[in-house]
Amino acid sequence: MATIWKGAVTFGLVNIPVELRSAVRTDRLSFRMLHAADHSPIKYERICEAEQEPVPWGEIVKGYEHEKGKFVVMTDEDFQAAAIESSRTIDILDFVKEAEIDPRYFDTPYYLLPTRGGEKAYALLREAVRESGTVGIGKVVIRQKQHLAAIKVVGDALLLEIMRFSHELVDATGMSFPSAEGLRPQELQMAQQLIASLAQPFEPEKYTDDHRANLMKIIRAKMKGRKIEAKAPPEEAPETEVIDLMDRLRESLEQGRKGRDAVRTKQKSAASREKKSGSRKKQRSA
Questions:
Q1: Which CATH number fits the domain 3-24+83-166, given the four candidates 3.40.50.510, 3.40.640.10, 1.10.357.10, 2.40.290.10?
Q2: What is the structure's pLDDT at 11?
Q3: Phi, psi of 153 (to 5 degrees)
Q4: Is 263 helix (H, G, I), strand (E, B) or coil?
Q5: What whole-number distance in Å separates Cα of residue 83 and Cα of residue 217?
Q6: In 3D, which of 132, 40, 143 has the Cα closest to residue 83?
Q7: Among 175, 185, 138, which residue's Cα sits nearest to residue 158?
Q8: Measured in Å, how far apart are the chain's first and last C-alpha atoms?
Q9: How many whole angstroms separate alpha carbon 264 and alpha carbon 274?
Q10: Is the CB of residue 29 less than 8 Å from the CB of residue 35?
């Protein structure tokens, strides 16, 4: 991954030279709009709503809509006056417990890598953050835009995660969520048993993007000239019956047990075949 920013992390009087690299990659399939008749790419024009005519870039300005149809026009000088002074430092303002931070604040992660001369201070900050169980909170200017940022530890790396500001979160006070008052202890206990039966160590590799895989399969087939027949979507009958949670939980637990028994049987069969294979190899070598 290419370096997107170079500067330093500071906490107190300690200065750590670092560079920033993306910690994730976008892997979405990209599609172009084409003319159905000749498959030529479609271009988009900037059309004036009043005149219904294309407008060249030189005649376009930016405006803030403060009321429906009413705009405050902003000039380059206005944006320059509002610009944050460019800085090559990430100043850690506070260290807070990660459990205290609403997960909605976190957005995009980047690796922080030490540059020459910063290795020892980098390792010192990493281990201090790890041992304290905290996250460093600061601000950083990237590509002329200021961001709130968190510095946390992932393995041997310091990770900088771009955060949202508080005004970007949606307040849920106007929304309605169900109360837990009507839940029976038996239902809660059985739900906990179901969760325990499905509990597994997190293995991200086993969760795949099935829709992307299906699209790529169709794309490759069409590249070879094959005709694709679409499956009819299944009809969904509206569920009007009252759901008995206890019955559903019992059925779910029973399905889980059958699934685990099938896996154990498969594992035992594989182990038995491997044992017999090893025994035959020993007999041949004897």
A1: 2.40.290.10
A2: 87
A3: -105, 130
A4: helix
A5: 47
A6: 143
A7: 138
A8: 55
A9: 15
A10: no
Question: What is the domain partition of the chain in residue ranges?
Answer: 3-24+83-166, 185-196+245-272
pTM of the predicted structure, to 2 decimals: 0.71
Contact 191, 199 (CB under 8 A): no
Helices in 70-169 by DSSP H: which ranges?
76-82, 119-132
In eight-state DSSP terms, residue 14 is E
Q: Which of these ranges, 41-45, 96-100, 271-275, has the smallest mean pLDDT?
A: 271-275
pLDDT for 50-108, tens place per residue?
Answer: 999 999 999 999 999 999 989 999 998 888 888 777 778 898 999 999 999 999 999 99
List strand residue ranges (DSSP E) for 68-144, in order. Answer: 70-74, 89-97, 106-114, 134-142
Strands 89-97 and 3-11: parallel
Q: Encoding tokens for residue 165?
A: 């500001």
**In the numeric block, which tokens belong to residue 87?**
């800085």
Taking the C-alpha atoms of residue 118 and residue 18, their distance in angstroms, rounded to an integer, is 7
Cα 193 → chain centroid: 29
> In whole angstroms, what is the distance from residue 150 CA to residue 143 CA?
18
Write the DSSP assignment of 187-242 as a string of letters. Answer: HHHHHHHHHHHH-----GGG---HHHHHHHHHHHHHHTT----PPPPPP-----SP
104: left (phi over 0), alpha (psi -120 to 50) or beta: alpha
Three-state secondary structure call for residue 65: strand
